[in-house]
Fold this sequence. Notes:
The complex is a heterodimer. By secondary structure, chain A is an all-alpha fold.
Amino acid sequence: MSAVETAKPRRQRRKLRARGLAVLVALACAVITVLAISGGEYDISPWRVVQILFGGGEGLESTIVWDWRMPRALAALLFGAALALSGLVFQSLTRNPLGSPDIIGLSTGAYSGALIAITIFGGGFAATTAGALAGGLLTALIVYLLAWRNGTHGFRLILVGIGISSVLASFNQYMVLRADLDTAMSAAVWGAGTLNGVSWSGVLPVGAVVLVIAAMLLYCARPLQLLQMGDDLAASLGLNTERAKLLLIVLAVALTSAVTALIGPVAFVALVSPQLARRILGSSGMNLVPTALFGAFLLSFGDLLAQRLFAPVQLPVGVVTVCLGGIYLIYLLNRGTRKAGA
Amino acid sequence: MNTSEITDRPQRAGSAGAHIARLAFFAALLAGLAVLSLAIGSRQMSVHSIMLALWDPQESIEKALVLESRLPRALLAILAGAALGIAGLLSQSMTRNPLAEPGILGVNAGASLAIVIAVGFLGIQEYNHYIFFAFAGALLTAALVYLIGRPQRGAMDPSRLVLSGVAMGAIFSGLGTALSLVRPEAFDQLRAWTVGDLQGRNSGIVVPLLVCTVIGILIAASSARSLDALALGEDSARGLGIDIRRTRVLVLVAITLLAAAATSAVGAIGFLGLMAPHAARRVAGASTGWIMAYTALIAPSILLLADVLGRVLLPSELPAGVVCAAIGAPLLVAIARGRKPVAL
Lengths: 342, 344
């Protein structure tokens, strides 16, 4: 049997397997969401939650499900997907499995902005969000400009990013040190990344931004795939590489900034999701949809743990995702297949 | 990132004499900063009066101030700076990754988790007591990182160690953050330690730090040649008769000792370890031995300068870690812009 004859059925099998897995992950997300909505100070049975979601609720229960818990559950799904997509874009552009929006100082800058809003302006929700957004975007811009010298170069971008991040990180620690303990602790919760207190007023605008950008990314799937093969090859196939790169960076940065502004810098979802999708599906393609699904799964599962592990103390979800990410890396090591690039 | 070429500068045609002259300059700079750090503070003293106070057999306020407060503080800055710088250089050489820093083996996360446990759950409140927990936590973490990333089938692959360090660092920092949010008093101590500072340290920690730093630097110096050979690639190193495994284990021990001692003594100033070797490479060329010598002088100079500036910039003292980042970042950005791009 020659390779050509077996290739086609194998590819179809792989496609089927990928679809099946995607459906499984989506189902897992649904189950987690129902569980997350059912638990809390006031228990509602999972079956009852499903009934209410399909329009069978009234009164207090309906209020709890729709107004109190749904925004948080939906935020976990949507924002997890957004972080994962952003990570996929960065990993494809840097061709480095450890490439993530954090390396250019985005999260640190967002934290600085939020801290200024919290400690100086006594930040309410809106002020914190605005401060984080401004801080993140400003940092990304400064790093980009400082690293620009006849084009952007991956390594220079990272080195400059680390330099700027470390100054900001130092500034952040100093602000936390100078603030009184309560302010400092609430800032630290935000700094770890948390979905506590997310409501419709936050989820709707950020969710809309996320959906629009995700749609644009789907539209950009082909240039991204070309760029993954290397700049020269992509250019020879007729792609304007610098323009495509800039557009993709802007989209990825916008995704991360919008999410970070609302819930803080959640670690590892952007890093791990694209890897999981690629590893489990075993394909080298652009996996946009599976990556988004894995991201949604990771953040909603992490938030479920964060709410229940030390209840009534609510952990920031970022603390859980960091641990999950670490465990995943150790699993990789024991598989012993992957070489870390950085 | 396969940046086996950490620097693409041609090897400086530096005769040993030229190097020694330059090293003498940096040593003089360090000595000058050390004298400055004795003179400057809330009570200004001239260099002349310091000398007089030290030679005077009579007890005086000046003498007590210099001997019991400023001298230990200057020594602490010099030792911790040198230790962090060399640890950073070794991390970069061993992983062949110019972005590695001493925290790569998870020692910072391990030390802070130990502090949270000591303060939050064992009721230890005094910095000079939980410092030993921090040291033990850092050592244990490095050992764990080595166990998880240890060689498979003989060869010790540095990238496995990096991955293992990042993983353990992530898990421990997650646990540390979670526990510190449950225990506010631990959070309070941790935020002070994380910034990195030389204030309020007990002079009793100078001697243990000195011992660890000297041992670490001796191991590092003895491995310089092997690291040079390793930079050419493993096969070439084997051809030159280098025992790769032994070199890596020794270097790992040195990094752990240096980073754990310095970090527990002055807090998490990891950035110094990332940046100082880059600055040293600009003047030293490509030989690991010379880079090591320059790093051992440049890194403590930066930390001393940061400490002195922190005392005078604002009416209230700025922690040395904050000033260190402010001095170091422009330097790193300049270095990044000045080099030709290295392939990612």
